[in-house]
Design goal:
The complex is a heterodimer. Chain A has helices spanning 2-19, 27-37, 48-82, 95-114, 117-138, 146-171, 179-184, 192-208, 213-220, 223-228, 233-255, 261-273, 277-301, 310-333, and strands spanning 139-140, 143-144. Chain A is mainly alpha-helical. In chain A, strands 1-2 form a two-stranded antiparallel ribbon. In chain A, helix 9 crosses helix 13 (277-301). Chain A is globular and about 70 Å long. The two termini of chain A are 31 Å apart. In chain B, 32% of the residues lie in helices and 28% in strands. Chain B is globular. The termini of chain B are far apart. The chains are: A mainly alpha, B alpha/beta. At the A-B interface, helix 9 and helix 10 of A face helix 2 of B.
């Protein structure tokens, strides 16, 4: 039910987003233009400007927002599962910042050799190094210490974020994002090329992570219990961490570090559908897509012709919403202890 | 070749501290083997070695004739189930979902029916729709035991299965384990209550300071001199007035 409803909301939000901006396009015209490009219908009497704005500028941006939101939220839900920690989030535990630093390094060192995918590959490597470092620091005598995980994440996130900002300032290279890009994100760089470089990697996470749903449920019982029930816990963690890093790395290389999505969306979803990962992962992907798409649409229209960094909006809306979620969770089953 | 659980020369040390050493032990199908001993004697450690949770520093374990080290996590979960002392669950799963988790490794069978039957056996079927974190300690134990039963394994390891239970549920759980053993299962249970062990176990392995002090039938091991030597507490052992099994009564002179 929730999944179908969220699917409808994603499509509706996309139509609204495609019509919003300096050039306003009515929903019916949006549909007509999309149908014409799909080879269905002649598009009616829609202007050339509207067509160009929608097809070349807005659609890539909307698709990127959907991909980034879905990827971040599903990654957050999966991380919270493997670490049995409601605070695990790609940004909080350092994967996003590691990916940002890796992406900047990748662009500087390799883009002239292997092309645009260098940033994505660098982001994946940086994110993986950060994720493994945090996991290694939180590991003690075969247990993952929940508090150490978060503290180590804060440290690694600080180093990664600083390194990305440092590279951005020092290298002064137009191919790199600004320090703001690496801390608050920006979808304004969206092109069809970037969509093509990003969505396939995000799709890997969004489509493959739900296959781990049952094992993620089991690990919530406890590492020992999951092992008793037949789960190879270390292997599960490694595989999920790699999938998460592929997904998050691709979003960071494309749109910088957008916070709060991976934390907020899965919590909201769990409140509605319970903790079972089969639903949580899919609903989180859709919810994340809606959140980032809505935030980005507001970010680029609220102060025309200026644009607000999208990460500011996810934080501005996400912070209070998260506090409300925490209070509700505590009321319903005693908080997280 | 044994069809049960065999530990040979088991030792386990961590940070230079020896928790268990020189343990040779066998449990066979059809019996409840109670693991007893004072606090810190190594009971839980021994259970973890036998169930494959920890690899022994020395020695080896065989389950149903196969070396434990050669079994994958999934194969292991089809051979043995484990009830830990307490399962802490922060996410609000329904109890039925918790019990269904026991079916992860299962190859066949109607998971839902098996889970409900297991909950019926442990008198927890009325809890199916409650969320696990909201249950009392005793209710959680019964749901966790249902999860263990739902695994439908020929070998069961239980760490203090009666610790949180009231009198009626303690009896219910022990009768359930007795029934499983009578049907051919190997049941190895760490117990803290000597009288529960005396009534339900076939044999007792008595640990002291990481070593196997004595192993034998309940009547052989649960004698006044043996208990006093290991627990350093004076006891009087009498025959149960109805059942005739040993009844251990601690006292101070």
């Amino acid at each position: 039910m929730l999944v179908a409803g969220l699917g409808v909301v994603v499509v509706a939000a996309a139509v609204v987003a495609l019509g919003s901006g300096a050039v306003r396009i009515a929903p019916s015209e949006v549909v007509a233009i999309l149908l014409r490009h799909a080879g269905l219908g002649d598009g009616g009497d829609v202007g050339v400007t509207e067509d160009a704005v929608l097809w070349s500028i807005r659609l890539p941006r909307v698709l990127l927002a959907i991909g980034v939101g879905a990827g971040l939220a599903v990654a957050g839900a999966a991380l919270q599962g493997i670490f049995r920690n409601p605070l695990a989030d790609p940004q909080l535990i350092g994967i996003s910042s590691g990916a940002a630093a890796g992406s900047a390094l990748g662009v500087l060192a390799l883009e002239s050799v292997i092309g645009g995918v260098a940033g994505t590959i660098g982001a994946f490597c940086g994110g993986l190094v950060a994720g493994l470092a945090v996991y290694g620091l939180a590991r003690h005598r075969g247990r993952t210490e929940v508090v150490t995980l978060v503290l180590a994440g804060i440290a690694v996130a600080a180093v990664g974020g600083a390194l990305a900002g440092f590279l951005s300032v020092i290298a002064d290279d137009p191919r790199l994002g600004s320090p703001l890009f690496y801390s608050l994100g920006d979808l304004g760089v969206a092109t069809w090329r970037l969509v093509g470089l990003t969505l396939p990697f995000v799709a890997v996470g969004v489509l493959v992570l739900p296959r781990y749903a049952r094992r993620l449920d089991l690990i919530l019982l406890g590492e020992r219990e999951a092992a008793h029930l037949g789960v190879d816990v270390e292997r599960l963690r490694m595989e999920v961490l790699i999938l998460v890093t592929i997904t998050v790395g691709a979003t960071v290389a494309a749109a910088g570090v957008i916070g709060f999505v991976g934390l907020l969306v899965p919590h909201g979803v769990r409140l509605v559908v319970g903790p079972g990962h089969r639903t949580v992962l899919v609903a989180s992907a859709l919810g994340g897509a809606v959140l980032v798409l809505a935030a980005d649409t507001v970010a680029r229209t609220v102060a025309l012709p200026l644009e607000v960094p999208v990460g500011l909006l996810t934080a501005l809306a996400g912070g209070p919403l998260f506090v409300w979620l925490l209070r509700r969770t505590r009321r319903e089953h005693g908080g997280w202890g | 070749m044994s069809r049960g659980v065999v530990g040979r020369g088991l030792a386990f040390a961590v940070d230079g501290r020896t928790l268990v050493t020189g343990v040779d032990l066998e449990a066979v199908p059809g019996e409840i083997l109670a693991v007893l001993g004072p606090n810190g004697a190594g009971k839980t450690t021994l259970l973890r070695l036998l169930s494959g949770e920890w690899a022994p520093t020395m020695g080896s374990v065989e389950l149903l004739g196969r070396p434990l080290a050669a079994l994958s996590s999934l194969e292991l979960a089809r051979v043995r189930a484990v009830l830990p002392q307490q399962t802490v669950l922060t996410f609000a799963f329904r109890c039925l979902d918790v019990v269904l988790m026991g079916r992860y490794a299962a190859l066949t069978g109607d998971d839902d029916a098996v889970a409900r039957r297991a909950m019926d056996t442990t008198d927890s079927v009325q809890l199916v729709d409650r969320t696990y974190p909201t249950l009392s300690g005793g209710e959680q134990t019964r749901v966790s035991l249902a999860r263990v039963l739902a695994q439908e394994t020929p070998v069961l390891f239980l760490d203090e299965p009666t610790a949180n239970l009231d009198l009626r549920h303690q009896e219910l759980v022990m009768r359930t384990l007795r029934g499983l053993a009578d049907a051919g299962a190997v049941v190895v249970a760490v117990l803290h209550d000597l009288n529960v062990a005396a009534r339900f176990a076939d044999r007792v392995a008595l640990l002291n300071e990481g070593r196997l002090h004595t192993v034998g039938t309940t009547a052989e091991v649960l004698t006044g001199p043996t208990i006093e030597a290991v627990y350093r507490q004076t006891v009087e052992v009498v025959a149960h007035p109805v059942l005739g099994s040993p009844l251990i009564l601690p006292y101070d002179r």
